[in-house]
Amino acid sequence: MTLASFDHVTRRYGDVVAVDDITLAIEAGTLVGLLGPNGAGKTTLLSLLQGLRRPTSGAVTLFGGNPLDAGRRAALGTTPQETALPETLRVGEVVDYVGGHFADRVPTAELADEFGLTDLLRRQCGALSGGQKRRLAVALAFVGRPQLVLLDEPTTGLDVDARRTLWAAIRRQHDAGATVVVTSHYLEEIEALARRVIVMGEGSVIADDTVARVVARVGVGRVQLVSDEPDRIERLPGVVRYERDHDRDVLTVTDADAFVRELVRSGLDFRDLTVRGATLEEAFLALTDQARATDRARTTEDAA
Amino acid sequence: MTTSTVPRVSTARLTLLHAKYGLIETLRVPIAVIGTLVFPALALLFFVVPQRAVADNPEFATAAVISLSVFAVMSNALFSFGLTISENRQNPWDPYLRTLPAPGTARVLAQIVSTGTLGLIAIIPVIAVGGLLTAAEAPPARILTGVLALAVASLPFMLIGSAIGYALPFKAAIAVVQIVMFSLAFIGGLFLPPILFAPWLDTVSKFTPSRQAREFVIWAVEGGTLEWWVWAGLLFWTVTSFALALLLFRRDQGRRFR
Which value does ipTM take for this structure? Predict the structure, then answer.
């Protein structure tokens, strides 16, 4: 079942095209990661689904209707930005305020327990730490037992422990039946949470596939070594990218096995070799680089 | 589709929900409330009480107390609604509330219940100062009717304030509210009694919600005949300004930067 869909949706702000002719669907039961650099259009895409903005053209559908219609949002859960919480209200009051919008809501104590807020319910929001505010913000998305949850950067600014705790809570909610869309700067987060990943760049969808296949599609490997002749190694066939990380040489290569064979055959000096597959982050960088290159090529063609 | 069967909370309950937490939020910053409550009484104390010619004449004093009560409710409505709403729109909590399943009607009405309640409380010190320090007089039942009439007559101001709040950014809203407030107060005969107006100004005055509110409350307190343009005008202003506020709420998509 499709919970939400975009049909050739474009959103402009003046001359800027934030979302450029996007068509995609969110199916029930999935956990989708939405990935992209700043300004790629992720937040605009979510705000269209939240009924905060209207598309310039195209149609956005939420639970079979228009998200601008308040009734259609009765099964939607979203997070406020952490800075958005009303400072003078107590944590318990904020939960009841938001929870009051839903006919079938999670009781405050139960939600507080799930997200580790039990000891904070009497505290005013202004007195919470960044991590506590994040937990509250994410908890609010789940208070109405939503069918679809949009999490915009749920763990920004959290330390590793707090992030993992929150991921566990999100995963439990997903297992309990919620469909989740999560945007993040942390690729690790998308890798840990999502099965399907949508990569956005400059308002368009660059890739939309499982995490494993997005990584595989780029087909790159990472080779690290130390060498006295990095400039000669860089010129070996199959090297896509060369960086220097402190005293180590880092090479992005199309085929790690072939590269290592070539390296040994060349007789060039090297030591401390490590080889691993690409992470989602590297795949993501490669994808956005490619997209930008094609874009430039197209623009040059147009000009010519 | 199964999703359309999700049970919903009624608009009335959502209105009360938003009104309740709006009021709690306001009351947690007591100094802001005190300003609203004290300002109208201070105006009476400074502008009317020292003028013994007015203050010692029961008829003039009663009209002056009523005019200032209308002014108090009007300025409170325009300022609180215009500025609170436009300030909230710049705060990221408001866009979050807009993602929740509450229709615009509930949001606009909730603001009226919460901020409007405070505005009516601000009348109590005005009546107290008027009763104790001037010759203004009215039987308690009449005063109560007057307060009710004031509540009804204040609706257009709250809704005009809401419309300004939804239409403009904060700094622009301050300027516009001030201009609207002083124009309505003066033309509506809240500062100078309309008896002193030139005939043409008196005619213009009858079209303003402030003049209509003044006449409506005087009628409620002192009795007599209610002229048709008073209630028709108030009804017209209430309906149009509600429609305008709702339209602007729906059109609003947060603050845009280019």
Answer: 0.78
Interface A–B counts its CB contacts (< 8 A) at 98
CB nearest B258 (choices: A13, A47, A51): A13
**What's the rounded mean pLDDT across residues A122-136?**
89
Best residue in A101, A140, A148, A150 to probe B by mutation, most B CBs within 10 Å? A101
CATH number, domain A2-214, options 3.90.180.10, 3.30.300.30, 3.40.50.300, 3.40.50.1240: 3.40.50.300
pTM: 0.78
Fold of A220-277: Alpha-Beta Plaits (3.30.70)
Straight-line distance from the first to the last Cα atom of chain A, in angstroms, rounded to the nearest whole number: 46
Q: Which long-range contacts (CB under 8 A, 24 or more apart) does A63-71 make?
A: A63/A3, A63/A4, A63/A147, A63/A148, A63/B1, A63/B3, A63/B4, A63/B6, A64/B1, A64/B3, A64/B4, A65/B4, A68/B250, A70/B101, A70/B102, A70/B103, A70/B104, A71/B8, A71/B101, A71/B103
Most A CBs within 10 A among B2, B4, B5, B6, hence the mutation to make, goes to B6
- Asked whether the predicted pLDDT for residue A229 surpasses 60, the reply is yes
Query: CA A153, CA A171: separation in Å to the nearest integer?
Result: 15
